[in-house]
Amino acid sequence: MSTRPTKDQLAAAHNTTIPDVIAPGLDVLFCGINPGLYSGALGQHFARPGNRFWPALHKGGFTPRLYAPSEQDQLLDLKLGITNVVARTTARADELTDDELREGGRILTAKVLEYRPAWLAVVGITAYRTAFGFPKARVGPQDHRIGDTHVWVLPNPSGLNAHWTPAGLAAEFARLRAASENCRNR
């Protein structure tokens, strides 16, 4: 498939899923809200041009260089992974219902208990609030844990989230990286 999906490929990607990048014992499991159509068409997380996840991951110190979405499986070598609150692809996250997000939170909880990452990093405060029932949650570390897994909420890296600059996103990712390293070094 070309690096840019066609209109037909995007349409065909609606309501599909893409595999998690996951393994037991990760340092950080990043969790998107749900895959977009672009990601679904390519089978890659955070694949849409303009999504700031990969640059924030690099500038936050998680990767030694800027990775492309097509290199997502290499994250496992760095003890990092990617999943989503809701698995199905949509054109926009606002197509998801609150019930879907809450069910996604239950599925995600089971996944975290199975794979036991040190940190779960949910990228999207509104999705986190709904999925886990914490309406006053803020970006940053949470008091909520899933088993032994710490939880951190990151800003949504979508280019549509203009409230967070690239530098602000990178700084928040760097805060998580420092916390995850602290946790690992204990």
Automatic annotation (TrEMBL):
The gene is mug. It comes from Amycolatopsis plumensis. SUPFAM superfamilies: Uracil-DNA glycosylase-like. Keywords: DNA damage, DNA repair, Glycosidase, Hydrolase. This is G/U mismatch-specific DNA glycosylase. Transmembrane segments: none annotated. Its EC number is 3.2.2.28. GO terms for molecular function: hydrolase activity, acting on glycosyl bonds. Residues 19-177 form the Uracil-DNA glycosylase-like domain. The keyword Signal does not apply. It is an enzyme of class 3 (hydrolase). It holds the Pfam family UDG.
